[in-house]
Specification:
The chain is mainly β and about 675 residues long. Helix content is about 5%, strand content about 35%.
C-alpha cells in the first residue's frame, strides 16, 4: 500500500512538472528575393509594430538587418522567460530557442561574419583585463538590427532578456563560460544595444552602477554570462533552466539560463537618459559568437554555442512624458466629402488618440491655412461642446482620446483651398522662417456657404407659341442652397437642370421643386406666356339673297405645328359685338337671314385654340351685289392682278372676248393684255 502511494506521488509530481512548462514559440524572418536575403517588408513591420511602443518616430527607410535571416525572428508565448512576446536576435537559429532544454550546448553554425562594433567591445573587455586584442576572424555569426530613431522625450527605454547556452546546465556534457574570459582564446558571447547619435556606438546593455564596486570599467559591467549568473552580485537577476532544486522545473526554452529585469539589485533594462528630443539617434542591436577552441570542450570548434537577446514587444519608447498619437477624421455627411458646409450640413470629426495616457496637461497644436480663414471654422470639443479658441487641443492628466468638431461659420461665399493642419507628433510645431509652424497632418476642404434658396424671378417667364417645344430652366435665377442642387419638374423624376417642355396651355405653368442635400427646399413656377396667334386673312363673304349661307374657314398662319388646332369659333356682328353663333372647330357658317336689312356688314369672330389661347378677326359680308372693282389702266408689257373680295365655292375668270378659256379658279387672276380687254368672273357661292 505504501509503495502504491509512493508511485502515485511520483506520477503526480511528473505531471505538474510538465504542465508548468510553457513552450516558447518562434517565427524566423522570412527569406526574400532581395539583395539582403530577407523579406524587408516583414522586418519593417516587426520593428514598427512589434518592437516600437510609441514616444518617437522610426525612420522606416533606415530599418535593416545584417546576418542570416534564420538569426532573426518573432517570438510569443514567452511567459517562462519573462517576456510574453517580441523580437529575438541570435548567433544561431532563432527556432532553436523554442525546443525543450535537452542539452547543455545547443549549437548552430551560420557562417556569417562578425560585427566591427562587437569586435571593438571584445578588445575593450580584454583591455580592461590586461589581455591582448583579438581579431575579426575570431568572431562570427553576427546578427544585427539597426535603424534611426527620433525620440519625443528626453530618454529612451527598452526591455530585454539575454539568454545563452553558455550558462551551466545540470547535466553533462555542458558548456559553462560564466568564469570567462581568462584568456584571449576563450570568451563568452557578447551582445550590445547601442542608442547613440549617428556614427557613434556605446553599449547601453549595462549593469546599474550599484555593482560591481564603483570605478569598475564599463566593459566589466556589460550584461553577459560573466556578469549576470548565480555567482555574481546580480544573481537575483538570473534564471537557470531548469530552475534550481528542490522544486526544479524545466522552462519552455532551450537556453540553459537567462537574465530578468527585476531581481536583487536595481532593474536591468535599457534606459538612455539625457537624449535630445526630436533628434535622430542610431539604434543598433547586435549579438555574435566568439571562436570556441579548447581541448576541454572538444569536439566543439568554431562559432557554435547559441545565445540570444529577446526584445520585449512594444517596449522601445522614446519618452513616456511625451506620448505620440494617432489621428483620424471623417465627414459627418459622406455625400459632401471634401466640403465643410455651414449650418451643420457637413462637419468634420477629428479624433486624436494618445499612445499613452496624458502625463498632465498635454497639447496637440493645429492651425487653419490660410490664417485669414480661421474665423470661418469653429473648433470645439465634441464631448463637452466647449469651443477651442487657442489653436491646440488640451488633454488633461490620464486622458487618452479627444474628438474635436470642425464647423463652417461666418460665410457669405464659398471659400476653396482651405486646410486644417495638425501636428502628427510632438516634434512638429516649431515656427518656420516663413511664420507659423507647418504641420504634416492635413485635412483639405472647401468651405461652403449655406443660405436658403432665393429666386430673382418668381415665376420665371418664357414666351412661346402653343404646342411649341422649348428648353426651360431656373438655374440662372436660383441663389443660395448647396450644390449639387436638384430641380424636380412637376414632381416627376429624374431631377434635371433643364426641362424640354411642350406648351399645352395659355398661359402654361410648370411647378419646380428645388432642393439640396442640406435640407434647403423651395417650390416656384415657370410661366409660359403664349405668343400671339397670327391668322390667315379671311376673304369677304358674298350672299345673293335670303336662304343663302357660306362656310368660312379660319386658319392660323402661326403657330403652324402639326398638333396645333383651332378648337372653337364664336362670331358676332360689328360694331356692338352682337352675338350671332358659335361652334366647335375652325369654321363659321354665315347665313343671309342672320343679318337682315344691311347690304354690307362686318362679321367679327374670336377663335380658341387647343391651348386655350384666343385671337380675334373680322371680314365683310356683302349681301347686295358682287363687284370686281373699278377699271384699271395698264401699259403694254405690264401685268395687273384682279381680285374678287368675296367668298365662293368656285371662281372662273375669263376674257369676255374669249369665254371658253378659264384664266383662274381662285379669287384673283393676273393678266397682261396687249390691247384693252374686258374680264369677267363667274362664281358659285
Amino acid at each position: 500500500m505504501n509503495k502504491f502511494k509512493y508511485i502515485l506521488f511520483l506520477l503526480l509530481f511528473t505531471w505538474i512538472s510538465v504542465s508548468a512548462q510553457i513552450p516558447l514559440q518562434v517565427l524566423e524572418l522570412p527569406q526574400g528575393d532581395t539583395p539582403t536575403g530577407y523579406d524587408e517588408d516583414t522586418l519593417r513591420s516587426w520593428v514598427l509594430n512589434r518592437l516600437h511602443g510609441g514616444g518617437g518616430i522610426i525612420d522606416t527607410n533606415s530599418i535593416k538587418f545584417i546576418g542570416d535571416h534564420q538569426a532573426c525572428g518573432l517570438f510569443w508565448n514567452g511567459i517562462d522567460i519573462g517576456l510574453n512576446a517580441g523580437l529575438v536576435l541570435s548567433n544561431g537559429k532563432v527556432t532553436s530557442a523554442a525546443t525543450p532544454n535537452t542539452g547543455g550546448f545547443k549549437s548552430d553554425v551560420l557562417g556569417t561574419p562578425g560585427d566591427q562594433d562587437l569586435l571593438n567591445m571584445y578588445n575593450l573587455l580584454f583591455g580592461a583585463m590586461n589581455l591582448k586584442d583579438t581579431a575579426m576572424q575570431y568572431t562570427g555569426d553576427a546578427a544585427v538590427i539597426e535603424f534611426t530613431y527620433k525620440p519625443y522625450g528626453e530618454e529612451i527605454v527598452m526591455d530585454y532578456v539575454f539568454a545563452s547556452e553558455e550558462y551551466p546546465w545540470n547535466k553533462q556534457p555542458d558548456i559553462d563560460l560564466t568564469g570567462f574570459p581568462v584568456s584571449n582564446s576563450q570568451a563568452f558571447d557578447l551582445f550590445a544595444i547601442s542608442i547613440e547619435r549617428p556614427n557613434q556606438f556605446e553599449n547601453s546593455a549595462i549593469l546599474p552602477e550599484t555593482a560591481p564596486p564603483p570605478g569598475t570599467p564599463k566593459p566589466r559591467r556589460w550584461v553577459s554570462v560573466g556578469t549576470v549568473n548565480a555567482n555574481t552580485l546580480f544573481s537575483g537577476h538570473f534564471v537557470s533552466n531548469p530552475t534550481p532544486p528542490p522544486n526544479s522545473q524545466p522552462l519552455g526554452t532551450q537556453f540553459d539560463g537567462f537574465t530578468k529585469r527585476a531581481g536583487n539589485q536595481d532593474p536591468i533594462y535599457i534606459r538612455k537618459r539625457d537624449v535630445i528630443p526630436c533628434t535622430n539617434y542610431k539604434v543598433k542591436i547586435a549579438i555574435e559568437d566568439f571562436y570556441m577552441d579548447s581541448a576541454t570542450y572538444a569536439p566543439l570548434y568554431g562559432f557554435t554555442v547559441n545565445s540570444a537577446v529577446f526584445l520585449k514587444a512594444n517596449s522601445l519608447k522614446g519618452g513616456m512624458d511625451h506620448p505620440g498619437w494617432e489621428a483620424g477624421y471623417h465627414f459627418t455627411n459622406p455625400a459632401f466629402n471634401g466640403f465643410l458646409i455651414e449650418g451643420g450640413c457637413n462637419n468634420i470629426e477629428v479624433t486624436f488618440t494618445l499612445d499613452e495616457p496624458a502625463p498632465g496637461d498635454y497639447y496637440i497644436p493645429f492651425r487653419v491655412i490660410a490664417d485669414a480663414n480661421r474665423n470661418k471654422i469653429r473648433v470645439s470639443n465634441l464631448a463637452t461642446g466647449m469651443v477651442i479658441t487657442e489653436d491646440s487641443i488640451r488633454f488633461i492628466q490620464d486622458e487618452t482620446e479627444i474628438t474635436i468638431l470642425l464647423e463652417a461659420i461666418n460665410l457669405i461665399v464659398d471659400v476653396p483651398n482651405v486646410t486644417f493642419q495638425y501636428a502628427t507628433n510632438p516634434c512638429e510645431g516649431r515656427p518656420t522662417p516663413f511664420g507659423g509652424p507647418i504641420y504634416s497632418g492635413r485635412i483639405p476642404m472647401t468651405l461652403r456657404n449655406n443660405e436658403p434658396f432665393t429666386f430673382t424671378q418668381n415665376p420665371k417667364t418664357y414666351q412661346a407659341y402653343c404646342k411649341e417645344t422649348l428648353d426651360i430652366t431656373i438655374t440662372d435665377i436660383t441663389q443660395g442652397g448647396v450644390t449639387p442642387i436638384n430641380f424636380l419638374w412637376n414632381g416627376q423624376l429624374p431631377a434635371m437642370d433643364t426641362l424640354t417642355y411642350q406648351v399645352n396651355a395659355s398661359p402654361d405653368f410648370v411647378d419646380v421643386n428645388v432642393g439640396d442635400g442640406c435640407g434647403n427646399d423651395s417650390t416656384i413656377q415657370v410661366k409660359i406666356i403664349n405668343k400671339p396667334i397670327v391668322l390667315e386673312p379671311v376673304l369677304d363673304a358674298f350672299l345673293c339673297g335670303p336662304g343663302q349661307s357660306i362656310v368660312i374657314q379660319i386658319n392660323a398662319e402661326t403657330p403652324s405645328f402639326s398638333d396645333y388646332t383651332i378648337d372653337h369659333v364664336r362670331w358676332y356682328k360689328l360694331p356692338g359685338n352682337t352675338p350671332i353663333d358659335d361652334q366647335n372647330g375652325n369654321e363659321i357658317t354665315v347665313v343671309y337671314d342672320d343679318v337682315v336689312g344691311a347690304d354690307i356688314w362686318i362679321c367679327g369672330f374670336e377663335i380658341t385654340d387647343v391651348c386655350g389661347g384666343t385671337q380675334t378677326g373680322s371680314f365683310l359680308v356683302n349681301q347686295s351685289e358682287l363687284t370686281l372693282g373699278s377699271d384699271v389702266w395698264i401699259c403694254n408689257g405690264e401685268s395687273q392682278t384682279l381680285t374678287a373680295n368675296a367668298q365662293a365655292q368656285q371662281f372662273e375668270w375669263y376674257a369676255t372676248n374669249n369665254p371658253g378659256v378659264i384664266l383662274s379658279t381662285t379669287n384673283n387672276v393676273t393678266v397682261s393684255p396687249t390691247v384693252t380687254t374686258e374680264y369677267a368672273l363667274r362664281i358659285l357661292d
